[in-house]
């Protein structure tokens, strides 16, 4: 099976007792929640005869159930391939498959339709599992062969077909690579049909998976299927620092999550005047230095006095701009900024109950000093007690010598 906690018996997954839909990364990758599963088909309507089948690392395809097999989510099936058959897991069935195929614009022409042969037997699953076990050591050797041939490419993943008759090598490269000699080496060493497929860096990260800087699994490997272009303007609109180390994901490209809240920021910025519009006052010309989208504030500085910023609201900025259009000037920005002066004092609240916030700031050396003084006085008393005993002992020793 896909994860180590699952085992198979008669073609059905066992072990985790979740019928192939467990919450681990490998069995629950790029799944779709079937919200139409509890709804019955209207009278006279036939259920949709296509199912969604997932293969290794989120690769999915749609197949027609021509033999009317009773298939449910988690079943292992043998599907049609270009040559031979492939083994995959059913991840979606019913009317929601029709919606997914329409959204992804998958053709239903007879020459493009692929079929499901049968439910996978235990022999099919054993061959499939044995082929999957070969993939990791093959990847190590394949990378070494590519390095020996001095090819500027990286082999990121290998996927065997379900009947172990073909191996697909996924690789990434900056430029076009002539790998004809490499295919000859692979065919000679691995004794199987070879297919080379180039993927982008985002697709490579989606196949391999990982943990992002947010602490969660990568979006591209769990639920994100369409990769939209991300530009640096998305970071500028959200007022993020243009630091490539923080804005780049594991694929080396800009993070896809920069587009998630971009529309909300663009809607909020519609209420702001353009930052390149200057404010003309009797005191001087003011230029925008900073904006606060959440609170609706803008900071302006006079030309020549760049260190002194004046905070005003967006409504005040629009009011000044409208007056400037009428060729009128306000006295200064200080009149508007004086209403927004806030105290810089921070009031701390007692959130610990009756305990003082400075209870850990008290010095703890007082007791040690007292203890040291007590020990010194005790030692002096003991010495005084021992001294007369020593004198008597000396006098007795003198008498005995006489």
Structural write-up:
By secondary structure, the chain is α+β, with helices and mostly antiparallel strands. It folds into 4 domains: 114 residues, no CATH class; 78 residues, GMP Synthetase, Chain A, domain 3; 43 residues, no CATH class; 69 residues, no CATH class. It is built from 11 helices and 14 strands. It has a 5-stranded antiparallel β-sheet with strand order 4-3-6-5-7. A 4-stranded antiparallel β-sheet has the order 11-12-13-14. Strands 8-9-10 form a 3-stranded mixed β-sheet, sandwiched between helices. Helix 2 packs across helix 3. The relative contact order is 0.06. About 2% of the residues have low confidence.
**Beta strands, count:** 14
Q: Uncertain regions: pLDDT < 50 for 5+ in a row?
A: 18-26
Total number of helices: 11
- Assembly of the depicted chains: single chain
The averaged pLDDT comes out at 81
How many independent structural domains?
A: 4
* Derived structural class: alpha+beta
Strand content: 15-25%
Secondary-structure element series: EEEEEEHEHEEHEHHHHHEEEEHHH
Q: What spatial form do the alpha-carbon principal axes imply?
A: elongated
Rg over C-alpha atoms, rounded to the nearest angstrom: 38 Å
Task: Give the proportion of residues in helices.
Answer: 25-40%
Distance between the first and last residues' Cα: 104 Å
Widest beta sheet: strand line-up = 4-3-6-5-7
User: The biggest beta sheet, please?
Assistant: 5 strands, antiparallel
């Amino acid at each position: 099976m896909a994860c180590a906690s699952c085992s198979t018996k008669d073609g059905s997954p066992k072990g985790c007792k979740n019928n192939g839909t467990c919450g681990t990364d490998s069995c629950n990758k790029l799944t779709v929640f079937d919200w139409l599963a509890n709804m019955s088909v209207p009278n006279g309507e036939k259920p949709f005869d296509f199912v969604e089948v997932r293969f290794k690392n989120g690769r999915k395809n749609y197949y027609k159930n021509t033999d009317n097999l009773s298939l449910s989510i988690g079943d292992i099936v043998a599907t049609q391939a270009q040559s031979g058959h492939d083994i995959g897991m059913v991840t979606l069935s019913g009317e929601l498959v029709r919606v997914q195929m329409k959204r992804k614009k998958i053709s239903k022409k007879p020459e493009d339709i692929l079929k499901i042969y049968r439910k996978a037997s235990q022999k099919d699953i054993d061959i499939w599992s044995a082929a999957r076990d070969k993939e990791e050591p093959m990847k190590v050797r394949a990378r070494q062969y590519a390095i020996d041939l001095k090819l500027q490419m990286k082999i990121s993943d290998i996927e065997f077909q379900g009947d172990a008759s073909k191996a697909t090598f996924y690789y990434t490269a900056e430029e076009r690579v002539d790998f004809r000699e490499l295919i000859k080496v692979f065919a000679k060493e691995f004794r199987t049909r070879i297919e080379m497929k180039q993927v982008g860096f985002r697709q490579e990260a989606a196949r391999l998976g990982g943990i992002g800087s947010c602490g969660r699994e990568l979006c591209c490997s769990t639920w994100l299927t369409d990769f939209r272009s991300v530009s640096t303007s998305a970071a500028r609109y959200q007022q993020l620092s243009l630091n490539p180390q923080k804005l780049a994901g594991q694929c080396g490209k800009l993070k896809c999550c920069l587009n998630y809240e971009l529309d909300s920021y663009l809607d909020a910025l519609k209420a702001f005047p353009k930052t390149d519009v200057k404010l003309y006052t009797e005191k001087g010309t003011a230029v925008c230095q900073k904006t606060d989208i959440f609170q609706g504030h803008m900071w302006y500085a006079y030309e020549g006095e760049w260190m002194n910023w004046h905070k005003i609201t967006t409504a005040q900025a629009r009011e000044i701009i409208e007056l400037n259009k009428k060729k009128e000037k306000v006295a200064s920005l200080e009149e508007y900024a004086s209403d927004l002066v806030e105290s810089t004092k921070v009031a701390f609240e007692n959130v610990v109950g009756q305990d003082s916030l400075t209870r850990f700031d008290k010095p703890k050396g007082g007791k040690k000093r007292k203890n040291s003084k007590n020990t010194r006085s005790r030692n002096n008393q003991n010495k005084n007690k021992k001294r007369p005993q020593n004198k008597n002992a000396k006098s007795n020793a003198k008498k005995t010598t006489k």
